[in-house]
Amino acid sequence: MYRESDFLLPLPENAFPLERDSFFSVLQAIKSSDYILVGGGSLLQDVTSFRSLLYYFSLLRWAQLWNKKVIFYRVGLGPLIRRESRFLVSRLLRKSSLSIFRDEESLNLALDLGAPSSFLGADPLFSWGGKEKKEEGEKVALFIRSFPEENREALYRAFLRFSKVEEKRLEIVAFHPEKDREIAKDIAQYLRCPCVILSQFSQIIPYFEKLKAVFTLRLHPAILATLLDIPWFALDLDPKIRAFSRWWGEENLLSFSDLEENRLEEVYRRRDILRERGKEVKRELKQKSEDSVKILGEFLKNAEKVR
Question: What is the C-alpha to C-alpha distance for residues 163 and 171, in angstroms, rounded to an integer?
Answer without folding.
Answer: 9
